[in-house]
Amino acid sequence: MVVPPRFFYDFCDEERQKKYQEWRLRTYVDENASVKWCPNPVGCQYACEYQGVEIVEIHCHCCFIWCWACGEEAHKPASCKTVNQWNVKNSAESENISWIRAHTKKCPKCHKPIEKNQGCNHMVCSKAGGCGHEFCWLCLGEWSSHGTSTGGYYQCNIYDKQSKEGKHADEEKSRLKAKHALDKYMFYFERFMDHDRGMKLTVTEEQDIEGKVQKLHDEHGFEIIELQFLYDALRQVRACRRVLKWTYVYGYYLEDSKEKNLFEYLQKNLEEKTDALHEMLEKDFDKIFFDQENQLTSGSAEAHKKFMDFRMTATNFTNVTQKFLIQILNDLGSDIGLGQRLSSSSSM
């Protein structure tokens, strides 16, 4: 027997009615392929309905922007497949293995990985988990056969001779290859995280701007609408940081080619403009209006002129930065429908 919805409203208290409404909405979303919950990692009560076929970005009311196709944070110009590869790589043990290959050698006796943390070539395999074997870092021979005649603690004539004979070529080639791969990964990963932190910082800065806007309104009489450009500029920085963050994922998997040269050129241009706009909002704005040593007189002509000049400069720079953002997305392309966006709707 199916219990009609009216039953819950007629015979249940307010708390049970609320739970029933939540259950109905959640069931509708979970069973409907054209409706998805916002995947904001900090939690969100909104869901979005989309019945199209193209890959789009969802701009949720909670301010989280996500990819409809894969449910990850919006990631253009990187494709969903590339993002998945990157996430797997970051969570896998492959980078630990690469680090071990690049920075350690195996003890010749027990084969435990040994890290060289000093300049001396005299290595002692730790007895804790190892075997206590003493050997030369370069040639891996027993240390007892080394001394002044073989080059002392910082050189190894035995290794030099063996290298000329090609005995260590494959080992060194493997280590250099691992080190190169690790260095490349760390280069892209560190910059990926830098822009991620910068993007998240703008959320806090937007809250700070609210207080500054109110102060400028109270002290100098500027209308709130006149100060909207500050929010526009900061949100432009946030959008650029998000795209720049994912350009480093895009670039990591891009083979050396003319396309990569173009990519790096566009990326550099956008990065420079974004950094300059961000600095303008963080430092220049505070220096003009909130410098304790050179405070502007409330409502003065000087304050008004400086405000108008700064607003014009910031607005123009925001527009320029936006053009560079559009250019990199259009020129690089991806499997994402550029410029398409939806707003989330249903909420619990």
TrEMBL record:
Record's protein name: RBR-type E3 ubiquitin transferase
MF terms in GO: ubiquitin protein ligase activity; zinc ion binding
Organism phylogeny: Eukaryota, Sar, Alveolata, Dinophyceae, Suessiales
Catalytic activity: [E2 ubiquitin-conjugating enzyme]-S-ubiquitinyl-L-cysteine + [acceptor protein]-L-lysine = [E2 ubiquitin-conjugating enzyme]-L-cysteine + [acceptor protein]-N(6)-ubiquitinyl-L-lysine
Biological processes per GO annotation: protein ubiquitination
Entry EC no(s): 2.3.2.31
Record-linked CDD domains: BRcat_RBR_ANKIB1 (cd20346), Rcat_RBR_ARI7-like (cd22583)
Keywords for the protein's UniProt record, in alphabetical order: Metal-binding, Repeat, Transferase, Ubl conjugation pathway, Zinc, Zinc-finger
Coiled coil: none
Chain ranges of the RING-type domain: 1-160
UniProt entry tagged with the keyword Repeat: yes
Top-level taxonomic group: Eukaryota
Transport keyword on record: no
